[in-house]
């Protein structure tokens, strides 16, 4: 475990969860391991985590951050320390380490992009998440209501106050997911009626912006758009053998940039919202469709 004079973060693991590998550098943010006494279910591990966190609030309420990962996640102690440091330095309250290129994954948005320190995204991989304590406290009821992996991957980023500057993939940190996702993770969740019209299912898997490796802040919806798109494409070009996926990523993001930024989700029932704004319909290109012949 890392040692530091600041209050330790909490790492919540199942009985078979793998502890961070190696040692953290001297002076790194401290953490302590909290192990659950029951195995996590394969399909909805966050249901058990939320129940545990609710029942044992005293174990984590004073911690600055809480991290949790599945039994199949491998991560270095140096990476955990850097994750905690970046969260504190940049005020990030919901994030995940970038998944290494040799990881199993459910969405390519969550894979490591070497051109960024971090990216704000519309998707997260619930196999490994880090929360600021205040954010976790606020999100627990929502996670209890919809604990499935595929719902959390979309819902947690979308319910941030400013979605395009909220949830983040920390590209400066990497973790390895060693087991293949279940089919459920690739399926569209069963959304409740309150989210039927303007829920996360209407937004594609996208990166909204972030912090470049050289310290430049870039975003999809301001005059740094071209720089952001170039960094995004250049980073992923290192990982693919064919140019077509890079073109699809570029075109999808450019097209989305022509529409307004994502609005924060309103989780109230429709009859409690008053006069709602006109539903935003984004001209999103589905990158899963085969490109038409030119």
Automatic annotation (TrEMBL):
Organism from which the protein derives: Ideonella alba
Location of region: Disordered: 262-294
Bias-annotated ranges (Basic and acidic residues): 283-294
Protein name: Uncharacterized protein
